[in-house]
Amino acid sequence: MTRLTPYQPLLFRIWHGASGILVIGAIISGFLVYNTFDGRFGKIIIPKINPIQDIHGTFGVFFLIVLPFFAVYSFHAGKHRLLQRDSIQKLTQVGKPIWWVSLQRLVNTSMLIAAVLAVISGRMMKEEWLPSGEFDHIWYYFHLISWVIMVCCLAIHVLMSAKVGGVPLLLSILSWKLRPEDSPKNWYSRFRSWNIRGEFNQFIAGSLLLKSIEVIVLGGIITAFVLPLFFSGTGG
Ligand code: HEM
Ligand code: HEM
Known about the structure:
mainly alpha; Fumarate Reductase Cytochrome B subunit; binds protoporphyrin IX containing FE
């Protein structure tokens, strides 16, 4: 492997790979939930899968567990791949390579926002609604819309990554290769040298836009965990 081959840090590959598999599972199983019980906006004729809600709930819950780790990683170790201070200004240079890169970073960032919309609305859904034909709950509509947003963002995310880095970049997130300096053996020493105050100062000095998005995304994930506790028992 030459140094020119794109290389993704192991931690990124773990969190991003887990999120990717769980999101694709949630998108497919979510569609099958809709197809089994609802189908008002179009339907494919396949046998009904009765335990599909449980299968979908399992993908959803695991994604919710992985998401805070991936989000914290992305906003700190991976922040060079999210929106930058000058990204919006660079978006005016339509068609230039920097335009594509800025667009890719914008779309990377929007994946985290789309994920938050899906997990908050999913957490507010009740298992009893769809089997008993109750399709008019506002949270169900939010959850359906977040499915559409997630599918669009994911498609653009993969296309943008292909445009910016081509097949080598796409393959780099699937690769099992490990650089010695990235070995888990060094994680403990790297963790010990990690300076929370330095990280906090960097956060404060960072771009206001990215800071606001970080607060929205991390706040949204916490909301997804706790909001259902306040609504248990009510219809929503
Ligand atoms: C057409 C699309 C979708 C439909 C019809 C749908 C339907 C549902 C239903 C009925 C529940 C409640 C299940 C239960 O309580 O066991 C649920 C929960 C959930 N869904 Fe979806 N979903 C869709 C798409 C998605 C997508 C794309 C994601 C994430 C990327 C997602 C994430 C979640 C999460 C996190 C939960 C909460 C699981 C829990 O706390 O038990 N859903 N969804
Ligand atoms: C088929 C699935 C996917 C593919 C092929 C893919 C591809 C990629 C690639 C190639 C990168 C690296 C970009 C670079 O190095 O410049 C990346 C970054 C990223 N992806 Fe994905 N992705 C997928 C699914 C997802 C999902 C489901 C999410 C969100 C839940 C997501 C969120 C992100 C984020 C936030 C980054 C930037 C990470 C960072 O800041 O370190 N991706 N993706």
